[in-house]
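#data-curation
PF: Archiving a pair of folding outputs for the training set. Convention for this channel: one message per protein, sequence first, structure tokens after, nothing in between. First:
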Amino acid sequence: MKENLTKIYDEFNRYIYHLCLKLTRNTAEAEDLMQEVWVKVVRYEANVAEVDHVKAWLTTITMNTFRDRYRKNVRRSKYTMNQPETLDVPILDLVPNNEISTEEKIEKTEITKIVQEKMNELDGIYQKTLWYFYVDQYSLAEISTLMKVSIGTVKSRLFRAKARLKEILLSDDALAETIMPA
């Protein structure tokens, strides 16, 4: 079995390295990721005999390992900050605050009102589609059933409704200045 793994390593080593490099955009991280991938391959060497497409299997392992590392780093960075050895700030300032500030609440409420007003300018079919998807949070399949149309039709209506809503929002000069200042 070790000979089989050596053969796989020799054949796909460069491919995995380049894939890791493409994902991480950093040689040191690519090497670390590649090492994790090969550790997993060795760990699951019993499954190698059952694999029909080794390259696809290795690609899947690489992509999943990259995603796991990314998620772990995001979670870790949410709760830790790079600080010098001596802290000049209270420790409670380092704890993330997930509450929305009063200003953000007011801004969100105002934006919601504006978007709802502009949605009223859309055709009824587009209004319903947007409402079902974003407000009621129905899936595409549920909207398809409710509106008695295909999922493809729902997707195209959703696309057109968003594009039209964007046009309406940007055609309002005062609003366009607020959204996209020059």
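PF: Second:
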Amino acid sequence: MIRKISIHQLIPGMYVVDLHKHWLEHSIWRQKFAVRDDTQVSRLLEEGIVEVSIDTEKGLDLPPAPPAPLAPVIEPERKYVSLAERLKAKPLTVSLGEERRRSGRLIVEANGTVTDLMLAARSGRSVDAARLEPVVAKMIESVIRNPDALAPLARLKQAESYATEHAVATAALIIAFGQQQGMALPELEKMALGTMVKDIGQSALDAKLITKPGMLSQAEYSVVQSHVEEGLAVLEATARLPETSIAVVLEHHERYNGCGYPYRMAGDAISVVGRMAAIVDTYDAMTSDRPYRPAISPALALRQLYDQGGTQFDPALIAAFVRTIGIYPVGTLVLLESGHLAVVEEVHHDDLLRPVVRVIFHAGRRQYVTPIEVDLARKVGNHYGQIVRAETFERWGLNPLSWQPA
């Protein structure tokens, strides 16, 4: 039912369908949206909105009588309170090995949910993005318990399921990134939710175009670019997303120097979450095998991103992202001065060049050695020297899944 109410009666959880003011007289670009918090209501007041119409089938209605008015106010924030309560009730940190085992199961669950939503979008059915909220909450819990478990494991993908696994991997990265930036739990959830559905518009595109091994023509590239607005159209029609999530969907292909798409936004005109999403989206794509080029090492990807700070990407956020995952992220294969190959086990966030590694292979003799853990930051007991460069598992015929930290 559509009901007209005073702006002073508007509360979080309601769904606005009409602002009753000409669009030229305010700067609210969305005419239909769910009210997520009191900040949004305050903004409407500042824009001179005096009354709105709400759809009570898509959101909350006016409370019938006291003391019911408290319920709608509390309800939209309940999942955030619940997450905070769960974090208080559980250990805040666990070992990397234990969290990696949990992460493996969580990634399977997340991939399954994203796959279902993409299939729904492809077939024209309703996309219930709310199904992702419990998964996102679990991912945040995982990153808080141990930030070096979920994101490195999610980076390992199967080519045939890249789209869904890319969605999960970028969500894991942006949660760790946001936590490093000190973002609040509700904002982390909204940002991760947007990252999980940011490419859902690709479901409307020809699969052969998305997986084309060669260069795209200008016409084909224009079609691929349309997935951003296609995705928003799908989500606006069937889902209720907060503005933070929508900003991720719309802006993850915008670039700091204004050369991105679809709106060619630049600098601070791009939201902070949009600038963060652009970084994690590009990093994960660079470190994944694609039909048109092989994956590069995480360290090389970070170097290239760092070199593009100030042009393609926000330089301050690039620096923060490097601090988040380390110059040599967990799971990276590196060559040591001794000629040995080692896998990064743990990052010293105050000494990014000298992580803890597990030595596994002698490059010169091309043979395995007895695995041994070495802390490269220690001045005594390190007979292997420092890192010379990052390597790829493929070059040496090693299975990355077999040598990930446990």
